Amino acid sequence: MERTLVLLKPDAVQRGLVGQIIARLEARGLKIAAMKLMQMDQALAHRHYEAHVGKGFFPGLVGFITSGPLVAMVLEGKDAVAIVRNTMGETNAAKAAPGTIRGDFAIDIGRNLIHGSDAVDSAKREIAIFFRDSEILSYSRANDPWILES
Ligand code: IDP
Ligand code: MG
User: What domains are there in the chain, each with its CATH number?
Assistant: First the structure.
């Protein structure tokens, strides 16, 4: 089953939105395969956001993402990467559709609450940055057949 990395960024923790955001992702049918509260340091931030090194917003992004605790999760499900992305909404929270996490809870591109991997390959790379294999659990839930046909 497909897996993706989700980060509930420091603004989500500070604003007390962690529970509401996880509730939306769980309600969608995604399964929590791994989860922890942690604080990113500079090295981890550079590794995770390596595609953005050198961009104008990069120093601000690193300052923000390392500024306090965040929740890191691996979510699992059919098309988990795309499902998380469309549940999150657009990167620029000001343009995110109502009904999405960013569209309902955020207004600024630099305070957009949540990260979700943008492709299966990047999900694999990002999950390995945050979690050891032994921290990622495979299990079935009693209601799985009511969420996925197969
Ligand atoms: P994503 O989080 O929707 O995948 P990316 O383009 O990968 O968006 O950018 C990573 C993060 O960098 C964004 O979530 C946002 O926090 C920040 N970011 C991206 N573009 C800008 C910008 O133009 N100004 C400020 N922050 C930005
Ligand atoms: Mg991205």
Answer: 2-38+72-132 (3.30.70.141)
